[in-house]
Amino acid sequence: MALNWQTEFYRYRRYFMGIRRFYGQKKVRVYTEIVLSILTTAFFLFFAIKPTLVTITGLIKEIKDKKLVIQKLEEKIHNLNLAKEKYFAIQKDSSLIDQALPKDSQISLLVRQLEALAVKSGVSLEAIQYSPINFKGDGNGVKASASVIEFKMFFQGDYQNLRNFLLSLNNFRRIIQVEGFGFKKGKEGEGLSLSLNGKAFFLKGEK
C-alpha cells in the first residue's frame, strides 16, 4: 500500500515538474499569456461590451427614426407655409366670390346693378318681375346648394345699345343665366323693347 502511494507521488511529481519546465520556456509563457488575454477579451466582449453595443445600435436606430419624423414634420410645415401664402394671395379676391354667389338673395342689389348696367349701356329698365323667394332655407338645418331666383326684365333703347347691354352681361360679377330674350319694336319714335328671362343664384343659409 505504501509502495503504491509513493509510486503515485513520484509519478505526479514528475508530471508537475514537467509542466513547470514546459511553462518555464519563454515561448510557452508568451503564447500562454496571449491566449489568456484573448480569452479575457472575449469574455468581456460577450458579457460586458455586447450589451453596450446592443444599446448603441438601438440608439442609432432611434436617432434615424427621429430624423425621419423631423423630416416629415419639416415637409408638413413647408406645405402649410405654402398653403398660408396661397391663402393670403387669394384672400383679397374672396369678396369677389361673395359677389358672384352671395349668401342670400340680395334681389334689390341685383336690380340696382342691372339698372346701373343698363344706364351705362344707354338703355332704360322699364319693369322687372321675379319669382317668390324662400329666405328660410330648406328647414332641415342643412346647407343647400345654390338656390335660384327667376326673373324677367324689360328694357327700352335702340338696337345697338340693347345689344351692348346683352353682351355686357357676360362680365356681370353676379352669377346669372340668361334663359332667353326677345326684341320687340316699340311705338314710333320709342326704339326697341327687350324682354329678358334669366336666373340669379345665391346660397341659402343654415336654419
Describe the structure.
This protein has helices spanning 2-23, 26-91, 94-100, 107-121, 159-168, and strands at 124-130, 146-157, 176-185, 192-203. Strands 1-2-4-3 form a 4-stranded antiparallel β-sheet. The N and C termini lie far apart (119 Å). With 207 residues, the chain is α+β, with helices and mostly antiparallel strands. It has 2 domains: 2-67, no CATH class; 99-203, Ribosomal protein S6/Translation elongation factor EF1B (Alpha-Beta Plaits, 2-Layer Sandwich).
Task: Output the keywords.
207 residues; alpha+beta; Alpha-Beta Plaits; 2 domains; four-stranded antiparallel β-sheet; rod-shaped
CATH superfamily of the largest domain: Ribosomal protein S6/Translation elongation factor EF1B
Radius of gyration: 50 Å
The tally of strands reads 4
Gap from first CA to last CA: 119 Å
Proportion in β-strands = 15-25%
- Helix vs. strand class: alpha+beta
Total helical segments: 5
CATH topology group of the largest domain = Alpha-Beta Plaits
Helix-residue proportion = 55-70%
Largest sheet properties: 4 strands, antiparallel
- Please give the CATH class of the largest domain: Alpha Beta
The mean pLDDT is 76
CATH architectural designation of the largest domain? 2-Layer Sandwich
Order of helices and strands: HHHHEEHEE
